[in-house]
Design brief:
By secondary structure, the chain is α/β, with parallel strands linked by helices. The chain is 34% helix and 16% strand. It has a single domain (3-181), classed as Flavodoxin domain (Rossmann fold, 3-Layer(aba) Sandwich), CATH 3.40.50.360. The chain is built from five helices and five strands. The model has no long low-confidence stretch (mean pLDDT 96). It binds ligand FNR. Belongs to the azoreductase type 2 family.
Length: 182
């Protein structure tokens, strides 16, 4: 069976630049690897430990989120920065898997993108603190922020900037090596 890369966009916006960047990863994957996009961020309930106990029946959306992470050989998260932080819906999803441990040793690449010069690097740093706390395996070359993103995407949402394509290609290659190291 094909190896699965689970793509998670931190933006719920229909025309999201982060979702578009994430989709562009599909064309960079080698044969035998496929990108699945997780689309459940908006369906997850607000995390509370009260809903997460042994006696509570797991919410359907939470079960689906955890199963998709478990089935993934690698994860790519591409997120905007909201008010210098990780968007609440993405952080909420991550809070649901702190104690269940799906990110333990999971090969993970992280991208932030913004039309602003900072590229969302503050959110990226915060996201990495959270994922490192959960012992995700994030190789140093698999964490990038992309400033001025609106100039780097064409009208169809394809990546039109050569440097950005090279960074994404390097990120994917690094992620693949991490998967193979097991
Ligand atoms: C933003 N944006 C933004 N950008 C940034 O670089 N740093 C920031 O702190 C913020 N804060 C912020 C808050 C809110 C509420 C919004 C709606 C936007 C701008 C943001 O980067 C821009 O809207 C991106 O296009 C969002 O990514 P998507 O939705 O295109 O993937």
């Amino acid at each position: 069976a094909d190896a699965i890369v689970l793509g998670i966009s931190g933006s719920l916006r229909e025309q999201s630049s982060n979702s578009r960047l994430l989709s562009s990863i599909r064309g960079l994957l080698p044969d035998g690897m496929k990108l699945l996009l997780y689309d459940g961020l908006g369906r997850l309930p607000h995390f509370s430990p009260d809903l997460d106990g042994d006696d509570a029946r797991p919410h359907e959306a939470v079960r689906e989120w955890r199963e998709q992470l478990q089935a993934a050989d690698a994860v790519v998260i591409c997120t905007p920065e909201y008010a210098r932080g990780v968007p609440g819906s993405l952080k909420n999803a991550l809070d649901w898997v702190v104690s269940s441990g799906e990110f333990l040793n999971k090969p993970t690449a992280v991208i932030s993108a913004s039309p602003h010069p900072g590229g969302g690097s503050t959110a990226l740093a915060s996201l990495m603190l959270t994922l490192n706390m959960m012992s995700a395996s994030i190789p140093p070359e698999a964490a990038i922020s992309i400033p001025f993103v609106s100039k780097k995407l064409g009208p169809d949402g394809n990546v039109i900037d050569a440097k950005t394509l090279t960074s994404l290609r390097n990120l994917v290659q690094t992620l693949i090596r991490t998967v193979h190291k097991g």
